[in-house]
Amino acid sequence: VNKGSITINGTSLTVVDSGKDFFSVCIIPYTYNNTNFKYLKCGSEVNLEFDIVGKYLAKLYQMD
Question: pTM of the predicted model, to two decimals?
Answer without folding.
Answer: 0.69
